[in-house]
Amino acid sequence: MCRLSLKKLLGIAAISFGAGIFLSFLLPPYFLAFIEAAVVIVAGILLLGRRW
């Protein structure tokens, strides 16, 4: 497993936050809710996949 430095992790978080704000102005709310649900499901699958 690769380790991320704190600087790199904060950079990724800032870019993700900015992209989310930008997309909230461009996309309709139901599509944003679909994207959020898909991301949460995929993150859960990846997290469970590491434990098995």
Report the portion of residues in β strands: under 5%
Specify the structural class.
mainly alpha
Counting DSSP H or I runs of 4 or more residues, the number of helices is 2
Give the SSE string: HH
| Fraction in helix | over 70%
Mean pLDDT: 85
- Please tell me how large the radius of gyration is: 14 Å
Overall description:
The protein has 52 residues and is an all-alpha fold. 85% of the residues lie in helices and 0% in strands. It has 2 helices and no strands. It has helices spanning 6-26, 29-51. The chain is flat and about 35 Å long.
Helices and strands in order:
Layout: H1 6-26, H2 29-51
Q: Which tags fit this structure?
A:
single chain, 52 residues, 85% helix, flat
Outline of this structure?
The chain is mainly alpha-helical and 52 residues long. Helices cover 85% and strands 0% of the residues. The protein starts with 5 loop residues before the first helix and ends with a helix.
